Amino acid sequence: MVATLLFVSVLVFVVVRVLPGDPAIVMLGLDASPDTVARLRASMGLDRPLPVQYMEWMGAALQGNLGRSIQYDVPVAGLILSRLAVTLPLTLMAAALMAFAAVPLGVYAATHHRRWGDYLTWGGSHQAVSTAGDRAWAGRSSPSSCPRSPWDSSSSPCSPAPPGPPCSKCCARST
After folding, report:
1. Distance CA 169, CA 175 (A)
2. Residue 148 pLDDT level (bands cut at 50, 70, 90)
3. How many CA atoms, within 13 angstroms, populate the side-chain half-sphere of residue 18?
4. Percentage of the chain exceeding pLDDT 70
5. Cα dist from 4 to 9, 11, 128, whole Å
6. What is the DSSP string of the chain?
7. Rounded to 5 degrees, what are φ and ψ at 31?
8. Exposed (0-12), middle (13-18) or buried (19+): which is 118, by Cβ within 10 Å?
9. Please, what's the largest Cα pairwise distance for the chain?
10. pLDDT above 90 covers what percent of the chain?
11. pLDDT at 136
């Protein structure tokens, strides 16, 4: 289990670091001077080699310091804890629902192997998992009601306003 956690931490760390986009430019905006970006990169430790960055990050994470959120500028551990009050009950309810549904269906499918009940159970569970995954992905990738990102200085201001309620990120609706 420790080896798996170590592998996943290395994998996530490397993937996040090699993705396009510089956190310093995201924080400062596209109009920031190269000097300012370089100073912020140095203060964040992004100018060091990847193995050094990983070891420093892992050492801090093992001590409970998960760093600061680039988007919210607050400690990441605090963000996780603030969302745990909602996430934990949802997770427990989903696990309970899964257990109460999956165990009887699995027993039924096993006792009716290669018959219509087995195929119906398999097809229904496959469809449920596929639909749930599609909905979760669509929720994460759907555009927000905000017409531009708060750090995107190249976009035009919030006019015309998008349909729906005003967003709190970058503009207020003028009606």
Report:
1. 18
2. very low
3. 7
4. 75
5. 8, 10, 28
6. -HHHHHHHHHHHHHHHHHSSS-HHHHHH-TT--HHHHHHHHHHHTTTS-HHHHHHHHHHHHHTT---B-TTT-SBHHHHHHHHHHHHHHHHHHHHHHHHHHHHHHHHHHHHTTTSHHHHHHHHHHHHHHHHHHHHHHHHHHSPPS-SS-TT-TTS--S-SPPSSSPPSSS-----
7. -85, 0
8. middle
9. 70
10. 30
11. 58
Q: Using one digit for the tens of pLDDT, what is the confidence trace for 75-125?
A: 999 999 999 999 999 999 989 988 898 888 889 888 988 898 889 988 888
pTM recorded for the entire structure: 0.52
Mean pLDDT (whole number) for 167-173: 48
CA 20 – CA 23 distance, rounded (Å) = 10
Q: Distances in Å between the alpha carbon of 145 and those of 58, 88, 136, 158, 162?
A: 36, 28, 18, 11, 7
Q: Which amino acid is at 34?
A: P
Cα–Cα distance for residue pair 8/134, rounded to 1 Å: 24
Question: What is the rounded CA–CA span in Å between residue 65 and residue 60?
Answer: 5
Is residue 159 over pLDDT 50? no
